[in-house]
């Protein structure tokens, strides 16, 4: 974390653009991007039978559907490759999190590819392009199940999400120096979708799917955000196969420091938080738990770090730091850390 | 439709690969792809307030959410550009329809880009990465609304979908000569998601969103499939702005021949069906209506065509012809038609 200027100069050279000063947000158009391979697929999934798939006459109520699969879209750039990175979104969102920002700037999904990393973007199971099961809704509607068996599915309203994303302490107050592009907030709200997490078992089926994906890729950094923060750690507990490192961005939860730390031994782990954390009762305890986890992991032979961005002079970042106006500067920091700790170009 | 061999030779030259014989499915790896610009955004959307967003203590029940927006992902290739194409998926599916096929071959989303067409892939509103509204589920769960107000949301089971997709007349019977990659059917079933169409107003909010998108692109062919077949026609009725043509793949409905044909005057329209249509009671009447529509449109100054693939010697295609083993051959036919009727490279 000591060489952001050098790092940015190297990236700029690779991209053949003028290096921006640290903290400067406008970047020139980067020019064409050459892709060696791209596509999408699913990981996981299981067949379930139901007699309440539909209440419509044109679609049979009984049959088999496939659920718990995880949608994955990927791009592999041409040229020397860095370690693959898998991007795992958080609550009430989809893989769109990592794509074009609300104000139209390049997302990390493309920027990481431009930096040479094969990049995999997932939709958590039961969300986005990963199918949910509507059977319990139709069972209640058909009078075959009580109302209590309806799924637990919620949406986060703009007003409540405001403090969760640390745009301000209460809606519509704004934190001083905030770097989230609030002028484009209407585009951000469009990214939010209903969340069925509370209807799913623990660990979330996304966790074994991430484990399978890491094995298929054969070595990837799992980069989580918020709600998904615990998933890569849970995946490492299932198996270390294919997991080259973990970058946990503003995790909703770190492992408890009293947990077994053996799954994390010698695994490069970076936990990152933005600004204003201590001012938010939802976030301050999470940061404390993550600090304690990092200490416990390292005491057990781990290679864990915690980075609080204001500690290195980067201020104003919201919870959505992949969309803040300095998002590419933060991407550079993370990719530099990944190159140094989890594997550089090969 | 008379020059498939010439067309394929031209494409092969453009891609610098050996031209395959017509009907031959194996194609060599096409090599790197250079993208001038890519990204994602939403079109449409409206704010709604609700007091049943959540039944969980951590998420407020009351607030504002944004719904009815349509997710769009796009890629623009480097080099001379053909007319942009917008791909609109059908029932119980998402934009994944057009991506990597179940058996791992290149999807039309990429192939169209390789043929020089800026390509836009959408998720219909309330599906995939386009948010639904969970308020009515939570209203019933909270005892604030009767069971009848639950949303109408269904999934198509494998067994029932079998005949809808024309894999066979009844599950698991297979049509003779079928070109759908049934060995990979497990991967296809993973693409299917719950469908909220019946909970939405008519026209579906996807229709004005497609109209807005066409205006933003400033000239695009709207290519629909199945359930979405009527949407581009409805969009053209709203406004012709930005609509350079319509390719309707196996539409669930064409406009009625008694409808006002003025919106389609001088608009290039191609309606395409695969094989076995007459053997399926769900599909045969749709083909007949589309034939009558094409005749009515042309009688009113239209430029509409209907293409039944077996009529030009291409047999074995299912309803999912963008995933059948000759999918790129069909793509060539459609892009050749688009180049000739809606605008070639510029």
From TrEMBL, chains A, B:
In the UniProt record, does the keyword Hydrolase occur? no
Hey, what's the signal peptide range on this chain? 1-23
Which keywords does this Swiss-Prot/TrEMBL entry list? Signal
Xref: CDD domains: Esterase_713
**Database matches in InterPro entries:** AB_hydrolase_fold, Carboxylesterase_BioH
**Does the keyword Translocase belong to this entry?**
no
Q: What is this protein called?
A: Esterase
Recorded source organism is: Methylobacterium crusticola
């Amino acid at each position: 974390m000591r060489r952001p200027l050098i790092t940015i100069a190297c990236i700029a050279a690779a991209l053949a653009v003028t290096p921006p000063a640290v903290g400067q947000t406008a970047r020139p158009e980067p020019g064409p991007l050459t892709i060696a391979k791209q596509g999408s697929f699913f990981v996981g999934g299981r067949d379930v039978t139901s007699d309440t798939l539909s209440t419509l006459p044109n679609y049979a109520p009984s049959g088999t559907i496939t659920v718990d699969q995880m949608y994955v879209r990927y791009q592999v750039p041409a040229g020397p490759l860095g370690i693959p990175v898998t991007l795992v979104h958080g609550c009430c969102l989809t893989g769109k999190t990592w794509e074009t920002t609300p104000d139209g700037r390049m997302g990390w999904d493309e920027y990481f590819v431009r930096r040479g990393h094969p990049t995999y973007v997932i939709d958590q199971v039961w969300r986005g392009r990963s199918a949910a099961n509507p059977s319990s809704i139709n069972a209640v509607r058909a009078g075959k199940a009580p109302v209590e068996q309806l799924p637990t599915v919620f949406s986060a309203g703009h007003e409540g999400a405001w403090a969760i994303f640390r745009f301000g302490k209460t809606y519509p107050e704004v934190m001083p120096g905030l770097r989230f592009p609030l002028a484009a907030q209407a585009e951000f709200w469009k990214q939010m979708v209903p969340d069925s997490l509370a209807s799913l078992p623990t660990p979330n089926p996304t966790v074994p799917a991430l484990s399978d994906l890491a094995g298929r890729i054969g070595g990837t950094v799992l980069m989580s955000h918020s709600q998904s923060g615990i998933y890569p750690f849970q995946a490492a507990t299932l198996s270390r196969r294919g997991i080259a490192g973990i970058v946990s961005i503003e995790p909703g939860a770190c492992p408890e420091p009293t947990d077994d730390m053996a799954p994390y031994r010698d695994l490069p782990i970076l936990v990152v938080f933005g600004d204003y954390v201590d001012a938010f009762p939802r976030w301050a305890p999470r940061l404390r738990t993550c600090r304690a986890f990092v200490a416990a992991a390292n005491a057990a032979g781990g290679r864990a770090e915690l980075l609080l961005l204001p500690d290195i002079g980067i201020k104003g970042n919201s919870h959505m730091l992949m969309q803040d106006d300095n998002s590419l500067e933060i991407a550079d920091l993370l990719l530099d850390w990944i190159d140094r700790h989890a594997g550089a170009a090969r």
